[in-house]
Design a protein that fits this description.
350 residues
């Protein structure tokens, strides 16, 4: 087993619309920043992996155009996942763990502004029984929220407090799209109000991974990945208990999250109700700081928000603000797929 760490993280200032920018334009500053933080050149990276969705771009193999931001020469070892960038990081981590690379560049991006995200995300549903009904992502999240309320796990006031805390914390995040006192708003789909839902916006993020002494040479305080795992719920929503997330709990167990308490948790919870589910599944109490960046309620660039959770957790370790952090990413309706990673600073290295 090799020690692998996140040694650098960069992201865009997330915005509601970036009509004037292509995906390459969106990515270039982020790639330059993350490489500049380590002093590495693009041709010194052992492996490059990206995460994005052709459905957002509206064209097949759209990720090949984004590779222009990395550079066409010299040839590189490269891969792509049609998923959030957190899963691209997982692939890169495996590549380093197998000894096929010592460093990796991981990036992801999403431009949600050109289309209707609520409709686009219906394409990930069961194509025979559920997708033909066109239940959009907010309506499905509302079903989950109502199930939590009916079970007595939360109420409207508790959900509103999650939204308020997230947007208040986001005031210290220069990259957040929504900050400060954001009103709860009208019901978007009962019981979810506008404030319970994530903003639609465009953004990109990138991290660099490195192994062992290479990581120590590139970063004063690397964020070591002590464990990482991902699990999937049943595809059919009708056979799932929407008030719980067994896949998150199992991923956390295999990542070692329950071995010792974490001081920080960056949870990919686009809806306030989903934070309730995740906190229960992960056993997080008041001693853990939840989403100090503001989380996905402050900025939710599709296909990058999960990678940002890993990057934000790592950045707090880099700055000495955290010793042991948990990062979570999700994909699919109602927390269908869940990835959990445990990160530690050098002082916690065993």
């Amino acid at each position: 087993m090799r020690d692998v760490a996140i040694v650098a993280f960069a992201q865009t200032a997330h915005r509601r619309r970036t009509d004037e920018l292509s995906e390459v334009d969106l990515l270039m500053p982020v790639l330059h920043e993350v490489l500049g933080a380590t002093g590495l050149k693009a041709n010194e990276i052992g492996f490059t992996c990206s995460g994005s969705a052709d459905y957002l771009a509206g064209r097949a193999f759209s990720f090949t155009m984004a590779l222009d931001g990395v550079g066409a020469h010299p040839p590189i070892s490269e891969s792509h996942v049609e998923m959030d960038g957190a899963w691209a990081l997982y692939e890169a981590w495996v590549k380093i763990m197998t000894g096929e690379a010592d460093t990796a560049l991981v990036y992801s991006y999403g431009k949600s502004s050109p289309g209707e995200v609520r409709d686009v995300l219906t394409r990930q549903l069961d194509p025979y029984y559920l997708a033909p009904l066109w239940p959009d992502s907010v309506s499905l999240a509302a079903l989950q929220a109502q199930a939590l309320i009916d079970a007595g796990d939360t109420d409207a006031a508790a959900l509103a407090s999650i939204a308020a805390r997230s947007r208040t914390d986001a005031t210290a995040n220069p990259y957040a799209q929504l900050t400060g006192d954001v009103p709860a708003g009208d019901h978007l789909v009962h019981p979810l109000r506008t404030g319970d839902c994530p903003p639609i916006g465009d953004g990109a993020a990138a991290v660099i991974l490195a192994a062992g002494d290479t990581a120590r040479a590139l970063c004063a305080r690397p964020a070591w990945i002590r464990g990482i795992d991902h699990r999937i719920e049943a595809h059919s929503l009708g056979v799932r208990d929407l008030t719980d997330s067994p896949s998150t709990r199992l991923a956390a167990q295999h990542a070692g999250a329950f071995e010792r308490p974490v001081d920080t948790a960056e949870l990919h919870a686009p809806f306030t109700s989903q934070e309730v589910v995740l906190r229960k599944a992960l056993g997080l109490g008041d001693a853990t700081r939840i989403n100090p960046s503001g989380g996905a309620l402050a900025a939710n660039p599709i296909m990058a928000a999960g990678l940002i959770r890993l990057g934000e957790a790592a950045a707090r370790i880099h700055r000495g603000e955290s010793d042991r952090a948990l990062a979570h990413a999700t994909s699919g309706p109602c927390l269908q797929q869940n990835l959990v990673a445990v990160l530690e600073g050098e002082s916690a290295h065993v």
